[in-house]
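Q: Could you predict the 3D structure of STAS domain-containing protein?
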Amino acid sequence: MYKFEIDDKEKVLHITAEGFFKNDESTEFMEALYEIFGSIQATEYDLIVDLIHLNVIKQDLVYRIADAFELYDELGFRNIVIVNPISILAKVQLFNIARSVHFSGTFVDSLEEWQPR
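A: Sure. Here are the predicted structure tokens for STAS domain-containing protein:
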């Protein structure tokens, strides 16, 4: 499950994803992501992706996460913050994916750890 929230006042796009992503759900997520990104000026917004309740990522969906990380970077958000999953295995998977695409975002264990620059 996932949801998107845009806070135009604070200039924050908040994405929450949790549980196990299925292949059809990952396709819907990416389509919704493109639609949301078309409605905001990314360079004026912070992106917060809360993955605290995300479970292990199925191997056949790793490329979708990699695509999302690359897209986040390409759009030029002011700041990109990923809230780490509780699951250690999912956290390791995300770090490996991020490293493979040279992701520039910041990983934190809670949103309180992050301070906007």
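Q: Anything worth pointing out?
A: The helical segments are 23-37, 62-75, 88-100.
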